Amino acid sequence: MPENRTPTPPKARSRKPRKTGRRHPLASVALIAIGLLFTGGAYAAFSTSTASAATDATSQQTIDEGRKLFIANCATCHGMQAQGADAGPSLIGVGAASVDFQVGTGRMPMAAQGPQALQKPVQFSDEDVAALAAYIGSLAPGPAIPEAHEIDGEGDASAGAELFRINCAMCHNVAGAGGALTEGKFAPSLAETSSKHIYEAMVTGPQNMPVFNNLNITPEGKRDIITYLKYLQTHPSPGGYELGNFGPVSEGLFLWIFGIGSIVALTVWITAKSN
């Protein structure tokens, strides 16, 4: 009889594990970072555009307010469009710095025609001065009101003193005490002038003063000059009584009156005692 044999089952095929795509551990972090970057960039762009629009609206409002103030207070002399008239020059192109100086020091509006506009109490508030300056500055390019870092008084006082002696001392005196000019004009004292108005005077050339643009005196040089003048304002003369800081004139007058006068008085007294 044939021998019964149990069939041997076929060998099971060995199955290799199927590779599954596994995400890198930093992938989630990268996706979050990209999302935050995109969201932040979009928000920044939106915020910037909104801020710019708000700034433009504020600037236009300030200009409009300045135009109203100009028509009410300045147009009589300078014309309705600031084009100038018989009583006043054109203001087109003088820049915001010129208006800020003239109105901010009380020189404008002028009380009466004269050799030059005199400094007097300011007639407008700071906001009104800024509005007038913004309006005139919008008519044509011109010198702008200086930024804080240009007038901070943190420059080189020694370099500023040299620049001041070369460019300014012939009119304003080496100590900034001022001096007389021709035809009833004069260079004012700088003993109490603010840093902003010093800078604005240099770039606009008010009255008889020449214009010192950036080709004549660099912005850094202007900063140095301001530093020197602020030093003079805050440090009294170490040599005693200054005699007005007018140099040989006041010093010579002092010697003639008190020096020679004392010698004459002493001579008379000695002569009277000897008789």
UniProtKB/TrEMBL annotation:
PROSITE patterns: CYTC
This protein's record includes keyword Magnesium: no
Residues that hold heme c 2 according to the record: 168, 171-172
Binding residue positions for heme c 1: 74, 77-78
Region of interest called Disordered, as start-end residue ranges on this chain: 1-24
GO cellular component, one term: plasma membrane
Highest taxon above the source species: Bacteria
Domain Cytochrome c: 61-140, 155-233
Main subcellular location: membrane
Entry keyword set: Cell membrane, Electron transport, Heme, Iron, Lyase, Membrane, Metal-binding, Repeat, Respiratory chain, Translocase, Transmembrane, Transmembrane helix, Transport
Alphabetical list of Pfam families matching this protein: Cytochrom_C, Cytochrome_CBB3
Enzyme Commission code(s) on record: 7.1.1.8
Catalytically driven reaction(s): a quinol + 2 Fe(III)-[cytochrome c](out) = a quinone + 2 Fe(II)-[cytochrome c](out) + 2 H(+)(out)
TM annotation in the entry: 253-272
Bilayer topology annotation: Multi-pass membrane protein
Name of the top EC class for this enzyme: translocase
GO molecular function: heme binding; iron ion binding; lyase activity; quinol-cytochrome-c reductase activity
Location(s), subcellular: Cell membrane
PTM section of the record: Binds 2 heme c groups covalently per subunit.
Family matches, as PANTHER family: CBB3-TYPE CYTOCHROME C OXIDASE SUBUNIT FIXP, CYTOCHROME BC1 COMPLEX CYTOCHROME C SUBUNIT
Assembly: The cytochrome bc1 complex is composed of a cytochrome b (QcrB), the Rieske iron-sulfur protein (QcrA) and a diheme cytochrome c (QcrC) subunit.
Protein's name according to its UniProt entry: Cytochrome bc1 complex cytochrome c subunit
Source organism (scientific name): Cryobacterium tepidiphilum
Highest classification ranks of the organism: Bacteria, Bacillati, Actinomycetota, Actinomycetes, Micrococcales
